[in-house]
Amino acid sequence: MWWSECRRLCGKSKTSTSVANQLLASKPATSINLKILANEINTALLEPQASFDPLLDNIETVSTEGFKNPIISLEATFKCLSTVISSKAGGPDNIPNWVLRDFAPELAQPLRCIINSSISQGTLPDIWKCANITPLPKTKIVEDAAKDLRPISLTPTLSKIAEHYVVHEHVKPALLKRLEPDQFGCIPGSSTAHALINLMHNWAQATDGTGNTVRIFALDYRKAFDLIDHSLLLSKLSTYNINPYIINWIIAFLKDRKQRVKLAHDCLSEWGSVRAGVPQGTKLGPWLFLVMINDLKVPSASDCIKYVDDTTVYEIISKGGPSNAQSMINEVATWSTLNSFQLHPKKCNELRVSFVRSPPSYDLIEINGSKRSASDGRAENPKGSERRPLLKIL
Questions:
Q1: What's the pTM value of the predicted model, to 2 decimals?
Q2: The Reverse transcriptase domain covers which part of the protein (predicted)?
Q3: Which of 59, 199, 223, 365 would you label with 124, given CA atoms 20 to 30 Å apart?
């Protein structure tokens, strides 16, 4: 059932309606074909980036004077090639994965030379900066490509091998020394389960027999990965202890990227230029996002938990005490504006947890001029005749 649903969502199931068919069904008959639809989807996905300034060719790189040029070993290159999963789709370079895996002994040395030259020169092959976009639906019914689709990038496998080296040998070690303890995404030995256990423990401890109330806000950022300002990202990245050769390689990785939407084997859109964001589906993308969001903090009387781009902030209110939730949200909103993140008020939700007989009431918080209603920690059953607690202390 799990993989059947995944295939359905990806539009690969022969018995289900694909994303393309859903969008075609909403348009007048004979007014559009699959190729035109692919171009329309690509335009819709790139349109929100129109206000961003792309990285220019004359962007200032970081001085490498006094630093050693990083070198990937032959053994590491061979290991990456020999463990390529041949059943996975290749990228826009049209090199089948089975070729890379089966000919790993022959390809390891030339690929090693290409990667080392790429890092030392701070440039990437143009095809490594291209991506085939698989549009995945966010909702069961897809009506608007701009709102209902999430772009997942399929990049060349050779590019991913280079990214793997950059991430695991340089970016990851540097970030793990600086990441705030409130971040649970991408961290070795951490997971959503750890984040949830941490939250539940803190809320239970705060409300067990104390009469306290917890106001919890699940925040949502509009197209969080796609609307990252490259200049801001590189400014933050430069504060980490990362070899300048690697930073210059990341600059080249982000600059002049292109994407096209793939709806079928023989249906590809025209190429479009990517002005902002980090590509979802790459190895480097999530770590660059962690750099962007790491300095998001809340007032000392509040707390925050992050799982990559999923952010939950909360405050513990003493019995009979006032709520400072609006100030907390205002600080988050200010940080978001300064960092070119866009809070999505309609998808931001509040949950209140209290075990007193008559829970206190508080003013609704306002996000970018929109007031958000709150749940009291209970939910209606499908028939609406009974209420059951969402949180249960075991």
A1: 0.86
A2: 117-367
A3: 223
